[in-house]
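Re: Re: token formats

Sure, here are both.
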Amino acid sequence: MVAPQPNQRGPSQEALAAREALKTAVDKELDKKRKLGHYYVWVTDHGSELIGPDAPTEANDEEQAR
């Protein structure tokens, strides 16, 4: 999160509440996927990563392409 400039106000209380609600929902869904053994895709500035025990690998992708 970018810090507000000294002459700017920070996020509103509504924005902070919405952010917290979204974070809680995502955390809950990721925990559910982990418990079910499903993988999820984590996206960063450097690309995406498949996380979880059943996440496809490059070897699996090549086999499926055949």
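Second one below.
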Amino acid sequence: MEKLQGRDVGIDLAKGIVIVLMVIGHCASADNSSNALQILIGAFHMPFFLIVSGMMYAGGA
């Protein structure tokens, strides 16, 4: 994807989609029951954020 002022639009788009899925997953779990949607979303949204954070880490400390 194209870069916009040093940002990768594809990464930003993917992060936005996962944020929306996270909100949907939390709304689905409001009744305190496990359902397939909650399990499916929960299986990948946090690992995705960890992977993307590692990719975006600049490394300067």
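The chain has a mean pLDDT of 75. Helices lie at 9-28, 36-42, 45-56.
- S.
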